[in-house]
Specification:
Rossmann fold, alpha/beta, single chain
Length: 304
């Protein structure tokens, strides 16, 4: 029987590093962000009308979205092997703005055309030989209990929001307006009596968006004590001991390949690369943010 492991967190929290490390366990398949609508046709179609970060309770059923996760935990390999080029071509033929409109549920000639193009993309093959499947997601923060129901082990990766916000700013990302999503407002913002700050400062906008994701992840993790929760900074302080503990708690066996991968990851890297000098990560935000940015970020984070 396949052992299914979900690695979840907010964007730029270290989930790829953690998931790639867990995937070094023997006979393991790695499924990277099956719910990323800017990468995979199935995700764009499954999330149509649900938003970038779907805010869903455990019920009622959402067939396309739920089937997306059934496929992921069945070891659909969405990154290589036959069909990859065609699937990537299908996504690249659709502008990001149209993909975003599609998941927001906005109807236009462009979104209708996009649906047709994405539906023609071939399906990814399965990996029936995988004894373990590691699935990584940074788009399930508002519905993690629903997604986690399909996993045998759940690893939630958290990061000091100051480090994550600094990374978002450096990446130059357009900040999502999660409060404009009625589902997020109804299921996340209002129940916690959160008040969004005025949208007039890129730093506070970023801090609010990340803080909302972090808040949801921490609440979900606290309500599920059997999940494995790990802080990115703690992993960086003592990678060997911390990762071996995460492996054990997730039901995986540490291997020589894990040792090699961990050593290889401990070097300088930027952008989407997962190599970093681990010892430099905990307080890196102090060098990446100005005093004004730090004050603005911490003022927003106090709302959570």
């Amino acid at each position: 029987m396949t052992h299914r492991v979900l690695v979840a967190g907010a964007p730029r929290s270290g989930t790829t590093w953690v998931a790639e490390m867990l995937a070094t366990a023997a006979e393991t398949a790695f499924v990277h962000e099956p719910d990323n609508h800017r990468l995979w046709p199935a995700a764009a179609l499954a999330k149509a009308g649900l938003g970038r970060q779907p805010a869903l309770d455990t019920v009622p059923p959402k067939p396309a979205y739920d089937d997306l996760w059934l496929d992921a935990f069945a070891a659909i390999d969405n990154q290589e092997r036959p069909g990859w080029v065609a699937r990537k071509a299908a996504i690249k033929a659709v502008p990001d703005t149209v993909l975003d409109d599609l998941v927001r549920g906005r109807t236009s000639n462009r979104t209708r055309t996009a649906r047709l193009a994405l539906r023609r993309a071939p399906l990814a093959p399965r990996r029936p030989d995988a004894g373990t499947v590691v699935v990584k997601s940074v788009h399930s923060s508002f519905c993690l209990p629903r997604v986690a129901a399909g996993a045998d082990a759940v690893v939630v990766v958290l990061r000091d929001p100051r480090n994550a916000v600094a990374s978002w700013i450096e990446m130059g990302w357009q900040v999502p307006r999660y409060e404009d999503d009625p589902g997020v407002t109804e299921r996340v913002i209002e129940p916690a009596a959160l008040i969004p700050p005025p949208r007039n400062n890129p730093t506070t906008d970023t801090a609010w968006a990340y803080g909302l994701l972090d808040h949801s992840l921490r609440r979900a993790a606290a309500a599920h004590p059997t999940w494995v929760t790990v802080e990115h900074e703690d992993l960086c302080d003592d990678p060997s001991a911390m990762f071996e503990d995460v492996f054990e708690r997730a039901g995986l066996a540490w291997s020589p390949a894990s040792d090699e991968a961990l050593r290889a990851s401990d070097q300088a890297g930027t952008g989407y690369r997962t190599t970093r000098v681990a010892a430099e990560q905990r307080d890196r935000w102090k060098k990446r943010l100005t005093a004004e940015q730090i004050a603005a970020i911490e003022a927003v984070l106090e709302r959570f």
